[in-house]
């Protein structure tokens, strides 16, 4: 299969890269860490992009892919922006797919050392085994997509998965909020039940839990290893459909150590600079920005302060 096709101008420019770099340089950071980016097998990425191309009626507006380009161009963009570490978040939508995705992601990370070694899982008999194998091979982050996978995080077939993750502390970026459209198993209630069973689970709730912001903030406050990522949150695009309540913003300051920057690159309908500007305009201070844009993730994933 050919590389995903591009149309229009190149997906990023030197000027855009300069703008992104200026943000972290002015904060005195060595770069940014983006915990929520997507690199997938070409056939899967093509299908994901086709979904976003057709999702307009579902979300009530078009969702253009700003960084629609071949794999190497997308990697070049992140490196030009000064992204020190990123992820290859893959996720299955059916059985007998996760293990194949894990193999692809492991190979991708071996070829791109600035990518966190990523894996995923699905409720199936073999999940315990391939998750154990991924952990033994040094996986750094798992991706779980409750909405796309259309499965309950409480499925008994995942008991062995969650117990291993709780024991080893490998973080899981989990899309469990009900945005952009609710699924059969989305929302905070199943996650709260899951955490009651496995209270040490290291979950990173994607998209700040859109749109159940308050409920997922509560879970992050209650459970030591629950964090949130900023992916698409606070942007003009998200504010139009699911605005972040102003009364919750002070709580973001209180939970500074539990919030990680994520962009959803390349599948965003705006430029990378806007993802950063949306976080900056919360006006929570430079120390908060340094923690969210770099230091929290660096600590969680053991990334040294600088390349030297």
Automatic annotation (TrEMBL):
Q: What range(s) does the Amidohydrolase-related domain occupy?
A: 33-303
GO terms, molecular function: carboxy-lyase activity; hydrolase activity
Q: What superkingdom does the record give?
A: Bacteria
Q: Does the keyword Oxidoreductase apply?
A: no
Q: Which residues form the signal peptide?
A: none
Quote the InterPro entries the UniProt record gives: ACMSD, Amidohydro-rel, Metal_Hydrolase
One Gene Ontology term of the biological-process aspect is: secondary metabolic process
Pfam families found in the cross-reference section: Amidohydro_2
CDD domains documented for this protein: metallo-dependent_hydrolases (cd01292)
Q: Which GO terms describe its cellular component?
A: cytoplasm
Q: Which UniProt keywords apply?
A: Lyase
Q: Which PANTHER family does the annotation name?
A: 2-AMINO-3-CARBOXYLMUCONATE-6-SEMIALDEHYDE DECARBOXYLASE (PTHR21240), ISO-OROTATE DECARBOXYLASE (EUROFUNG) (PTHR21240:SF28)
Q: What is this protein called?
A: Amidohydrolase 2
Organism this protein belongs to:
Gordonia bronchialis (strain ATCC 25592 / DSM 43247 / BCRC 13721 / JCM 3198 / KCTC 3076 / NBRC 16047 / NCTC 10667) (Rhodococcus bronchialis)
């Amino acid at each position: 299969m050919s590389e995903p096709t591009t149309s229009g101008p190149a997906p990023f420019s030197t000027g855009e890269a300069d703008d992104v770099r200026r943000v972290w340089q002015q904060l005195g950071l060595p770069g940014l860490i983006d915990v929520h980016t997507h690199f997938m097998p070409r056939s899967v990425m093509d299908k994901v992009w086709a979904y976003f191309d057709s999702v307009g009626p579902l979300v009530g507006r078009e969702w253009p892919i700003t960084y629609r380009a071949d794999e190497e161009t997308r990697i070049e963009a992140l490196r030009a922006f000064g992204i020190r570490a990123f992820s290859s978040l893959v996720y299955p939508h059916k059985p007998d797919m996760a293990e194949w995705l894990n193999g692809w992601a492991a190979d991708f990370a071996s070829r791109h050392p600035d990518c966190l070694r990523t894996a995923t899982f699905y409720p199936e008999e073999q999940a315990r085994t391939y998750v154990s194998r991924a952990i033994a091979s040094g996986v750094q982050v798992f991706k779980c997509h409750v909405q796309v996978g259309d499965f309950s995080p409480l499925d008994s077939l995942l008991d062995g998965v969650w117990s291993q993750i709780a024991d080893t502390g490998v973080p899981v970026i989990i899309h469990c909020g009900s945005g952009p459209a609710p699924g059969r198993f989305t929302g905070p209630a199943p996650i709260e039940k899951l955490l009651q069973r496995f209270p040490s689970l290291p979950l990173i709730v994607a998209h700040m839990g859109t749109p159940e912001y308050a409920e997922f903030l509560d879970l992050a406050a209650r459970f030591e290893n629950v964090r949130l990522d900023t992916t698409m949150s606070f942007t003009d695009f998200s504010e139009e459909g699911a605005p972040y309540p102003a009364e919750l913003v002070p709580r973001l300051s209180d939970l500074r150590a539990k919030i990680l920057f994520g962009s959803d690159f390349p599948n965003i309908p705006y430029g990378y600079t806007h993802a950063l500007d949306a976080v900056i305009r919360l006006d929570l201070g430079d120390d908060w920005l340094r923690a969210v844009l770099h230091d929290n993730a660096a600590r969680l994933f053991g990334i040294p302060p600088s390349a030297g």
